Amino acid sequence: SKAQVSQPDKLSFIEGETVEISCNHSITNYDRLLWYKVHRDGGLQLILHSYNTDSDNGPFKMTINKEKLYSILSIWKEQVAQSGLYYCAGRDTVTGGSHIHVTK
User: Fold this and answer.
1) Which CATH number fits domain 5-103: 2.60.40.10, 3.40.50.10490, 3.20.20.70, 1.10.10.10?
2) What's the CA angle centered on 87, arms 32 and 46, to 5 degrees?
């Protein structure tokens, strides 16, 4: 059966809060999970990817639990400029994304 990946549709935050986006999946044989941000021009930015270890990149941190099949993307001290659509992907499976809306 086709692998399943799920994450929240929409989340809203106040600027300065730490944001957490969860990603649950059913991919037992994945080689890595990836988090992307979609920019306004439609371009994709790969934020983080990992196999089974936590990693970070600036304000972004990815925690991962390979056994329990989930990942969390944290955005530290969220800024309005980081509003947008975030995708979690594993192998060839991607979600519908999470729309993050940040207000001052």
Assistant:
1) 2.60.40.10
2) 60
Q: Give 23's strand partners.
A: 71
The arithmetic mean of pLDDT across residues 61-81, rounded, is 86
Residue 2, Cα to own-chain centre: how many angstroms?
A: 20
The pTM of this model reads 0.79
Give one DSSP letter per residue of 20-80, joined into a string: EEEEEE--TT-S-EEEEEE-TTS-EEEEEEESSS-EEETTEEEEEETTTTEEEEEETT--G
Instruction: Output the pLDDT for position 1.
Output: 54
